Amino acid sequence: MLALGQKANATSITLDTTDTELCEVQVTIGPEAPNGPIHRFTDIDTDDRYTFQTNKLCNRRSVGGEACTGDYTEWACCEAKDGEDITCRVP
Predict the structure, then answer these.
(1) Most buried in the list 25, 47, 56, 78, measured by CB within 10 Å?
(2) Model confidence pLDDT, tens digit, residues 4-54
(3) How far is 19 from 45, CA to CA, in rounded Å?
(4) Which of 28, 60, 78, 22 is nearest to 87 (CA)?
(5) Is-contact 61 91, C-beta < 8 A?
(6) DSSP letters of 24-83?
(7) Alpha-carbon dihedral 30, 32, 33, 34, rounded to 10 degrees
(8) 31 or 64, which is more confident?
């Protein structure tokens, strides 16, 4: 609950990639990330951006370029301070 005169600090993390030669990116968000529900993104273009209202985001990508092999990189995590908007790059 906010008191009068108090400003809410929205925090967001935007997922960004410059590599279009990938099959899938997996994302988890929240304080327990990388544990938690996995959001899957496929057919990603270089201008695609995904923004999440969260303080912590972890992501990993498929290994093998555009071929889905079922193997993934290790989780890479980004954390934002309250009220901060940051960009997290896909490894």
Answers:
(1) 25
(2) 333 456 799 999 988 778 889 999 999 999 999 999 998 887 778 899 999
(3) 8
(4) 78
(5) yes
(6) EEEEEESTTTTSSPPEEEES--TT-EEEE-SSEEEEEEBSSTTS--S-BPPPEEEE--TT
(7) -160
(8) 31
